[in-house]
């Protein structure tokens, strides 16, 4: 049997640990035992260390020479800072996409919205089992909105911020049930974008992102462990 290339093994290990962080299998603040992860995943020490170093560079893990790696903690203060930064970056990306986007871009947006709108809303289902599917479709829709932006650096920063926000969204989806019409929020943003109304689209996007942050804050991140245990 041919051995799996180290790069492929490292990639698989990276995505496995990342998914476990996003799904809260590894909870915020938890210290990760590298040897246990190696045994659990059947991966080499080098592959696990490289994957964890990458996750630390992306902000999912924190590392120290004495204590190793732990899952980055969550807090209301961090969420507020993250949301403020996301709104600013999304504004820049969205305005350029609206200015430059063509018919194929519009078609991709409509298709992504259609798929997302047909999935059970992860926000409205406490302990939903399909959070992964909804989160993936949500990411596809939001990425489609800005895909006509030509600034690679803006899009990279935006993607990093989106991933960090996804951790907070999933904490909310797992730990509580929210009365929120996300489909119509997304529809309003899409319609403003397709009408090339940049000011309205950016205002609606800012409201959308801020509303998510406000709901997550109300979950009370200080007591998130208790809420996850009950989920």
* Total domain units: 2
As residue ranges, the low-confidence spans are: none
Helix content: 55-70%
Q: What fraction strand?
A: under 5%
Number of helices: 10
Distance between the termini: 42 Å
Mean pLDDT, nearest integer? 86
Order of helices and strands: HEHHEEHHHHHHH
**Structural class designation:** mainly alpha
| Main sheet specs | 3 strands, antiparallel
| CATH arch. level architecture of the largest domain | Up-down Bundle
How many strand units? 3
- The value of Rg in angstroms is 19 Å
Dominant shape: globular
Looking across the biggest beta sheet, what order are the strands in? 1-3-2
CATH superfamily of the largest domain: GntR ligand-binding domain-like
Q: Oligomerization state of this entry?
A: single chain
CATH topology of the largest domain: Four Helix Bundle (Hemerythrin (Met), subunit A)
